[in-house]
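COMPLEX REQUEST
Ligand: flavin-adenine dinucleotide
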Amino acid sequence: MLFDIAIVGGGPVGSMIAKISSSRGYKTIVFEEHDEVGIPVRCAGLVSERVIKIHGEGIINKIKGADIVFPNGREIRIGGNRVHAYVINRRIFDKSMAEEAMANGAEYRLEKKVKRINFKNGIFSIEGEKARILIGADGPKSMVAKNFSMGKLQYINAIQGYGKYDMDEQYVKIFLGNDLAPKFFAWIIPAEKARIGLGTTEKNLKQHFKKFLKNIDARVDEITSGLIPIGLRKFVRKKVALAGDAAGQVKATSGGGLYTGLMAAKILANNIENLNNYEKEYMKSIGKELQRCLLLRKIFIKLSDNSLNKFASFVEKNVDLINKYGDIDYPSIVAKQLLKSPFSFQKRKSASSQKEN
Ligand SMILES: Cc1cc2nc3c(=O)[nH]c(=O)nc-3n(C[C@H](O)[C@H](O)[C@H](O)COP(=O)(O)OP(=O)(O)OC[C@H]3O[C@@H](n4cnc5c(N)ncnc54)[C@H](O)[C@@H]3O)c2cc1C
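STATUS: Structure written out below.
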């Protein structure tokens, strides 16, 4: 049978595309290398309300804010009384999305790792099946991207485990420090068993994680590691499109990719017959925010521990502003407001240079 759409990857983004396209009558097939959708889980599962509105399955906790721990140990709480984020069970979230796609008529080939794709006379041949449109929703190391030379990404190495941790169950904890988690951060997400993890661009991930666990006096099991992509690939090449982590559609500030990937899935599914529109529409909307996040990351990775500790005082003075404008899907909104704040780093710098003159 000739399928309209073949999707490599049965993660949330692949399944969301399959769910929409099959509901519109497109014959859709999804290839997933694992024997079950939703495992292994390589995600902290912290998402905004926007994600819940797209797919509200698997909620296990509601989060009101974050305690940020700076390199000198100073801890500052941001957030407030309203719910800012949700913790989800990714296994349930991904599985229920795939079930909805199947209920709409999408076919899944589980335990089918796509190794080769051929393209001839306008038709893709993938693991014995044929399709006229190909979508790579196959995660950060996307074989589809590689196969069709759609660009390269950089990566953050991330590791996470589950363990008991005594904490306020409505606040996540974020730890900053160049010694602790170089060029990224460490986290504890409260859930029945806390999700304790760390990301860094450095290779000795396990050593950093061991040290972090010792610092916070925690033990974890079910440890998994994964990659967080940084940068953006080309999304479209003729009848091939990438979406989600495969395209690098992840916030470089936090590594969060569910909202940005699901938005891509929606926009892509709406432009399935004109893929170039997908890239244009995405870049005009959430894509711009991803570019701003890349800029913010460039600034963040240059901060020494000393600067991070100074930044703590700045954060403390601006807690109300952060609480008002903070949005985990659009971090640039609060960043812009912080630049305008009377305590802004920039203004202090120019005031001191005026004094010097
Ligand atoms: C440690 C960690 C913590 C994170 N925490 C958060 C968070 O709190 N909030 C958030 O929003 N995001 C978070 N993310 C990011 C989030 O997990 C991803 O953005 C999201 O999973 C992207 O979905 P996807 O469908 O694009 O890719 P994936 O979820 O990676 O799915 C890709 C699928 O493709 C399959 N696949 C790959 N290659 C092949 C192949 N050749 N053949 C067949 N199948 C294939 C894989 O098995 C997988 O099922 C985190 C990431 C990591 C690593």
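REMARKS: The radius of gyration is 21 Å. Residues 154-229 form a domain with the D-Amino Acid Oxidase; Chain A, domain 2 fold (CATH 3.30.9.10).
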